[in-house]
Amino acid sequence: MEEGQVIELQTDARFAYGEKGRKPDIPPNSSIAYIIELVKKDYPMDYESMSAAEKLKYGENKRERGNFLFVREEFVSAINSYNKAVRILDPATCSDTAESLQKLLESRLKCYNNMAACQLKTDAYDAAIKSCRMVLDVQPDNVKALFRTGKGLAAKGETKEGLMYMRRAQKLDPDTKVINQEIMKLSKKLQAESQSEKDMYQKMLGQKPPAKTNKQSENSSSVWKWTSVIGGVTIAIVAMGITAYRHLQH
Predict the structure, then answer these.
(1) Cβ atoms of residues 47 and 63 within 8 Å
(2) Residues 6 or more apart whose Cβ sits within 8 Å of residue 53
């Protein structure tokens, strides 16, 4: 396209606002016709040469875009936005006041944390754990990063390690319901895994796992045995009584 040129672009719903649409003006599953005018040609932005304030402005825009896409459950697109924000917000590529650089870092860590949430939603567990570690390297007590690391590890089958991170999160934030629920779930899972592992080792050694006893059956059996004994004694006594009576009659 040339400057001043106008085109019309037709796009399918999946490349526009998808099945959710955009309230109040775009219904779900709507195809969109865009009228595009090229106003000006410009070179791509050189984020590395920007000041901390400029980086924060553009980086926050990308982060907010990622948040918008996350709410719409467009997780892959959200990850792309957070990735762009992370690159823009890199404090190592600029020199500024300590306060400005700290703001960049904090915004960047939010992006990593949010990106981890999206990666868990797309079953990218290793990537989610890596994103969380970028946070925990700087903020070891970040509850969200600890919780999401635990979720990622547990989803990979590393239940014991996942539970350890969950408990660290719980220690810092004991009243959060979702953390407590996850700990209960993982504790039960770990117990079941431990029992399965124990049974497997017993089978390997040629030992049968202990059979589960039915207390009610045992009690019923005991009652039956005692009833039988008492009944037998009663019959014997009656028989003896009859014999004695006959003897007296003779």
Answers:
(1) no
(2) 96, 100
Q: What is the value of pTM for the model shown?
A: 0.72
First CA to last CA distance, the chain: 134
**Cβ(31)–Cβ(10) below 8 Å:** yes
Cα angle: 94, vertex 100, 103; to 5 degrees: 105
- Give pLDDT tens digits for 178-234: 999 999 999 999 888 777 666 666 667 666 656 555 545 455 454 444 444 444 444
How many whole angstroms separate alpha carbon 72 and alpha carbon 156? 26
Whose CA is closest to 57, among 67, 66, 47, 69? 47
Residues paired with 7 in a beta bridge: 36
